[in-house]
Amino acid sequence: MGTFSIDVEHTADNPWGLERLLDVSELAVYLGVPVSTVYDWPTHDPEPPLPGGSG
Predict the structure, then answer these.
(1) Which pLDDT tens digit goes with each residue over 1-55?
(2) What is the dihedral of CA 22, 23, 24, 29, to 10 degrees?
(3) What is the predicted pLDDT for the residue at 11?
(4) Between the CA of residue 35 and those of 1, 8, 50, what are the distances in Å?
(5) Euclidean distance between CA atoms 13 and 10, whole angstroms
(6) CA-CA distances (angstroms) from residue 7 to 17, 18, 22, 44?
(7) pTM for the whole thing?
(8) Cα separation, 31 vs 45, whole angstroms
């Protein structure tokens, strides 16, 4: 079986070597939307419900 490795940088402030994620305000700026829109997204269905209540 082969080995799996990834090149990550381990530092004192990043001991797991993970990429930093954007915070809400950085994401809003990146997308060009208000911060309130970013907060609203998880609370809204991305699609309207299907007829007959099966969605």
Answers:
(1) 455 555 556 666 767 777 888 999 999 999 999 999 888 887 666 666 667 655 4
(2) -50
(3) 66
(4) 47, 31, 30
(5) 8
(6) 9, 10, 21, 38
(7) 0.49
(8) 19
Measured distance CA(24)–CA(30) in Å, rounded? 10
CA-wise closest residue to 8 among 25, 17, 27, 40:
17
Q: Are 17 and 8 in contact (CB under 8 A)?
A: yes
pLDDT at residue 25, rounded to an integer: 92
Measured CA distances, 10 to 6, 40, 44 (Å): 12, 35, 38
Query: What's at 35, amino acid-wise?
Result: V
Q: Quick one: DSSP state of residue 32?
A: T
CA 45 to chain centre: 17
